[in-house]
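Researcher: Please predict.
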Amino acid sequence: MEKADGNGLFILIKSNGSKLWRMKYKFAKKHQELALGKHPSVSLADARKATEEARALLIHGINPAEVKRERKLASAKESTLFYDVALKW
């Protein structure tokens, strides 16, 4: 079940009771969804802020899902670097 908040933001309520913030948007003529986090870890205010930031990226022609993916990869690389340094030490 979905409950819309506006501006593409909605909360997806799964049958097991978990609640997930999502944002629907259109990029390159395709409908897409961006995961914003799990409720209550991510508050409504934080979900709205993330939606605004994603909309700003869309205005500049940038896919927010790609930005999120790049940040996740960079974070994984940083943790790998720490792991390498720790092993050498």
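Model: The chain is about 45% helix and 35% strand.
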